[in-house]
């Protein structure tokens, strides 16, 4: 079935009104939850084949988050879907005003390879909750998970409701030629620009979840042991192939050496003396990215690690100098540059000199520093005295700003992203303000000015 036919069939199904029924959406979410649970072993195996993720990491960072998101939506969707009352303004009275949450229609969800289950199904949950149909395009770089996702979704949903398109660049290009009602893309900034350009042809609304160089700041008041532990945790999850992974560390020069020693300790504590042989350590996705990461390592100063054997690269601490490639682009791998700073102001200045990051992590016990960094740096989201875990709160939005993305999702924010807020006013007939009608007179103008006060 060609892409145009897929989209046309989904449009026809959407206009049948089936997805408008909230009970239909809840039933679809329940089907998806049951299917993900029943195929848990299949999905864990697929994630291991694609990324060498252990069952523990697969459940903690993908399966568990998907199931929790499904529970969250199922429990709250009826409430979210109800029209909300809004008070009319003085000039509108008598009237009633309601805001309706209206689905966009046929949506396109394009997901990446690094979290191929979570970043496919999480936005899909929002699309279903919002009452849309969806064409899902998983990444060709994670074929086992993409195939498993296609099997699961094809078994429980008709193609005119949810359709999975496998393939690579050719399929992406064909899909982006179609007129969708909403596009949700997760991936690199480079490809995000291509998607946005394609969306502009039809003025299609879009969410872009991208990435960037997410910094860590460690000041002299930080708990150095805890900082090292949590930074290394955030860096080695999925072998650093995480859009919100710590990308580089700005550390007060007085505690830099202590932080590095603790980082070395926790790399060994988490992965042993031979990380490349650890059965629970994820791999680099393919040869091209493996070669790129080794190129970055070869053009900077290694403090710790640096060993590699395809498809694995051990956690590597580096000390970059000005102009090193490792500080010019998002790393997306297990390499962590560490840079000395003399002050928080210096750190803020360095971060501001780069595009706005998707995440920022600050380790400090100083409330003044917390306030200064939070208020003076623009970034998608982050943590104080931790890394990564802000993503898992379904009551808070997740998304980037500028080069790190636009739009947000998770929990109700996913529902809001995939719906249009439509205002409908029902006007009463009890009286009609004559001042709004021609002919305009000084008396009418005086009345308008009085009301506006």
Written description of the protein model:
This protein is of the alpha/beta class and 453 residues long. It has two domains: 3-210 and 402-422, Aldehyde Dehydrogenase, Chain A, domain 1 (3-Layer(aba) Sandwich), CATH 3.40.605; 215-392, Aldehyde Dehydrogenase, Chain A, domain 2 (3-Layer(aba) Sandwich), CATH 3.40.309. The protein is built from 15 helices and 18 strands. The chain has a seven-stranded mixed β-sheet with strand order 10-13-14-9-8-15-16, with helices on both faces. A six-stranded mixed β-sheet has the order 5-4-3-6-7-17, with helices on both faces. It is globular, with a radius of gyration of 25 Å.
Considering DSSP H and I runs of 4 or more, what fraction of the residues is helical?
A: 40-55%
Tally of contiguous helical segments: 15
Number of strands: 18
* CATH class identity of the largest domain: Alpha Beta
Shape: globular
Q: What's the arrangement of strands in the largest beta sheet?
A: 10-13-14-9-8-15-16
User: According to CATH, what is the topology of the largest domain?
Assistant: Aldehyde Dehydrogenase, Chain A, domain 1
Mean pLDDT: 96
Detail the poorly predicted runs.
Answer: none
Named CATH architecture of the largest domain: 3-Layer(aba) Sandwich
Multimer state: single chain
